[in-house]
Amino acid sequence: xxxxxxxxALVSGLLLAGLYAAVSVGISISFGMLxxxxxxxxxxxxxxxxxxxxxxxxxxxxxxxxGIVALPVFFALGAAIYQIYYWSFERRGxxxxxxxAFFFGLLFITEVALILGFGVDYRxxxxxxxxxxxxxxxxxxxxxxLVPFVVALLLIGALHWFLTHSFMGRAIQAVSQDxxxxxxxxxxxxxxxxxxxxxxxxxxxxxxxxxxxxxxxxPSIGREYIGRLFAICVLGxxxxxxxxxxxxxxxxxxxxxxxxxxxxxxxxxxxxGFLLLTLAVRPSGIFGR
Length: 289
Known about the structure:
two-stranded antiparallel sheet, ABC transporter involved in vitamin B12 uptake, BtuC
């Protein structure tokens, strides 16, 4: 029945929003708070997926556990990347076009490295929650989407608490607005941005693990998410976690309903059309100031 299809499409869209929010939260930090357009962010998400795949395939470790354990490694990777970016571009005031070229280069280097290491075949993982579903009447809730949804909410909640209840979190929110005020408080803005960017990259470890739980991945699939990630960040309001979560839900529901009743090929076009319409009415985004 159409009503049953609609309800299942809405539920699927909301669960899909958890994944979108998890992989967009890093963009919300780097682009929304630091004004760094990290176009390579989706590539690091796919890197997180393949780290989870290797641990699951060779050692049988749960992919989400792998994503959490690998957080410090991705944090260190993000700190190193920002240091290179700062010394090469930001320190000289050349973070515009040349900075974008730097992240484009990182995107393709990461993708090519994954292709050389794993080929172009799709890879998937195994876990006890991949396959079973929960039935609530005529609504089916697959655990492979419910578990990532819950983990995504926990990740975003922890980051939101850190940014709003810690000194470093408040410094991260202020660094792009008033560097001189931070210096007057004896806080190094470069150090704050390095920690914030490293935190943004660290989230890709968990985001990539959630992605490969929901669907198989291959090295170039990250390109499909570039537009979605920045769209969610802008639609929700730059740097707003609640807005990002609402925007992810809107995008997920619109794509799911469109794919269910029309065609999957129409889903991205309708979702981005809705984005443009919303921004035409409210250019600052849903929760933007």
